[in-house]
Prior knowledge:
By secondary structure, the protein is mostly helical. It is built from 11 helices and 7 strands.
Amino acid sequence: MLEEAGPRSVASGFGARPIDPPPGTRFAEIHAKMLDPDLQVADLDRLGIDSSVISASLVVAGTAWAPASQALELNRRLNDTAADWVSRHPTRLIGSFTVPLQDIELSLAELERAVDVLGLRVANLPAQIGGAYLGAPALRPLWRTIAERGLIAFIHPDGVADPWFQSYSLWNSVGQPIEEAKVLASLIYEGVLEELPGLRIVVSHGGGYLPHYYGRLDRNVQNMPDSARFKAPERVPVAALLRHLPLRPGDARGADRPRRPRANRDGK
């Protein structure tokens, strides 16, 4: 599947870079663990973690580029692999499933198979499909089914396709939180959360406030040759950031800040 999806993903710069990282690098180690459940469980043991949710890395192996029928085949392969991993480590790994969002009927059918046949109960979703973010009306039947079955939705963007974000790996450091903010806005403003208040949704990185992405910005400077001339931004303490955030009247965090007098009806 990597041979098909890899060259079409942001992780490879849409084919500009090989999807397989150079041997002996940190990325090669991570890549190996993504393909071997035993290595993942060994990490759980080392870190003292009881269990972990596994999800297909749609950034690397996304299926949005494929026609619906081909996307269904690829998603089935991902889901079958997740179920196999869980069967090998049933107390340590929790599996998730993906669906071919290109076609809502195929998506609902694969959801049913993944839950009822494979026993997976976490829906692994990208932020958008073909430019339509997850709050789009066409995807509402999927959300209703997720809510009715009491499933958990895990949302992780599959990357920013805009060519501007490909330089310096900005799709990962700047583009990713933008995509997360857009999908959250879509779910809110298009009424998904209002219609289905019982939905359980996990958004990777919590929607992405840029100051919390300093780690990725630093990593890009260190790992990307074309960004070596830039100096990583200095970290700003959270307390310093809060002092410059606009606070609502009555917010305790702003109690020690001088308040401007309120304007009267004439604006004075």
